Protein 1
Amino acid sequence: MTHPFLDLAPLSAARFASIEDRVARLLNTRQDVVIMQGEALLPLEGAIRGTAGPGTTALNIVTGPYGQTFGDWLRDCGATVIDLAVPFHTAVTAEQVRAAFAEHPEIDFVSLVHAEAATGNTNPVAEIGAVVREHGALFYLDAVASVAAEPVLPDVWGVDLCVIGAQKAMGGPAGVSAVSVSERAWALMAANPRAPRRSYLSLLDWKERWVDAGRKALLHAPAQLEMLALEACVERIEAEGLETVMARHASAAAATRAGAAALGGGLEPYVHEAREAAPVATTLRAPAGTVASELVARALASDPTLPLAAGGGALAGEMIRVNHYGPAATPGTVRGALTALASALAAHGRETDLASALRSADETWI
Ligand SMILES: *Cc1c(COP(=O)(O)O)cnc(C)c1O
């Protein structure tokens, strides 16, 4: 009996290389792009362990939960870590990064998350990249939650290690991911005695045995289904047009923000400034006297298909997340989320104006 997921022909090295090329085109990069056979945490960790060591002084910018993790890996590598943390309702500024360099001129590594799906903010990478370049530091960027939701331009911004995953705005699989690597990042890894080698975390293995060997033979059997899903999702983005996909995300964020403000009932955007709000997902502050996770549970009871979640960990009480990404970046999802939140607020005795919220959302959709 045939099955769509089973008994597939092996994925050839040529097909694998062509998927890498398509991902490189999506990022508009001439750097090497390596597709890693695991969720994005694999290249995120592999890139830090490959390039950081006891001689590294890292500026680790924390604008959400992932920055915390990067700082832990950096410290584990023996790096001296300077954490620059900003409140989750805001973004970091290029001026703050410039001030950190002024105070610590020895900084030679900067880690940054572009957009934060977990907290709903997005950071000005182009401006920060200019500061990082001025000081010659290596620039590491987590673009998992920004790729396909807003421009990600590693070459233009001088990003040395740019990690993406397909599971957010690309609307693809979570089980494979990619990283673009600059020449100087490769050189740093090659010179780093502690860089993972003959290891699943190793980027160098892919450099030496795949990229430099002309991409003729894979290191091990690839995650075939995930690779096919990645190819299909890039194809779908190419067919719709990357600009159109990004515009859908920008509209979903703007419409959710405007709709929530018009809804009333004490609901407010979590990220104060609209320009610092991520296109990938919108976070809202639950009204005083309510619990975000309870509102979300009630909203999901009215429509379990909606991409609503409460904030993680300590944020569960105050933060509502509308994950309007990938196939959910549509007017229907935004309207559905506003409608479900209105009924959840009503159940908590809050007065809302759903008609006005839906009108605002519709008018804001570009
Ligand atoms: C989603 C995301 C990742 C990947 O983590 P998962 O929780 O496994 O999806 C990494 N970095 C950022 C900024 C993300 O938003």
Protein 2
Amino acid sequence: MALHVHPTISSLKAYSPGKPIVELERELGIREAIKLASNENPWGPSPKALQVLEHASASLHRYPDGGAHDLRQALANKWQVPNEQILVGNGSDEIISLLIKTFLAPGDEAVMADLTFVMYRLSVLGGHGVPVEVPLKNWTHDLSAMIDAVTDRTRLFFICNPNNPTGTMLTGQEIESVLARLPNHVIVVCDEAYYEYVRDAAYPDSVRYVRDGRPVVVLRTFSKIYGLAGLRVGYGITTTEIAGFVNRVRPPFNVNSLAQEAARAALLDDEHVAKSRAMNEAEMAFVEEGLTAMGFTTIPSQANFIYFDVGMDGVAVYEALLRQGVIVRHIRGSMIRVTIGQPTENRRFLEALKHVLPTLSQPAQV
Ligand SMILES: *Cc1c(COP(=O)(O)O)cnc(C)c1O
């Protein structure tokens, strides 16, 4: 077979998601594995979202509303922008690739941190663009260096805030100084997938930048605190101009009908969001304390996960935890990311870690 595959594509390494629970259980022949690897809401979906699904499924023989009118209107009301400034996608992942498809011609550049959400790099390469990756400074975006990396070919500037996987946050002041310094041809993508978890008052009100007419896309998702990762729905808030261009390449039925209905119901469930947020805050403190007590260095997080240094081969720790039925994420080197789960899951994670450490930290046999 002589397939003609562009070298950019053939050299890509496919995105590797957190290991699913059922897969690990099958491999090890165990039950009750826990997954703290994909920053999902451990408390499940909003009950209000579940309620509307049954009714919505009666119309599954119909195509979805291609314009997702009701969902976009609900989001427009919530964020006080006209509904033509709302984009919805099959997860915010899809909006990321749509932005790349819309604005990046082959050879155009997208600036991003060198340790950030992997999908930026993958989607840019998949779109034959050039990811320009700027190393982190103190575990957070090095904004000055990122601005220095901007050229005439730069089309997109990705800011992941809080940053996945480090959990670090940029302040409104920092974002504003970026906006002031960037040339007008660069679109700033503020990926705020963990927006609802942030506790620091210095966090930006990024929708304001959009209202001010800046070339900004604020990305949010129903996959994290809203607990709807399986339905795939995310959204963007941006200028009418940017939304108009993206809509030219957006597939017409990119958000399915169940997702549209469930997301709209979840959006109104303030109680579920508040509970998830409060539980996360309390449990984050617990996990952080546990890790510190074991002597690990943790990076302070504004999201629903903790990035920490195990001080040894992270793959070995990841694999040892898997054998205990605990799925976390190895990021690179000695760094691991763990999602905050329910209290019982967090206790099990800390105990499993305590249990496997002595077997791992012995010096190599000479
Ligand atoms: C989880 C996540 C997303 C998106 O998720 P979708 O499920 O595609 O909405 C986007 N950005 C970051 C930083 C994330 O962590």
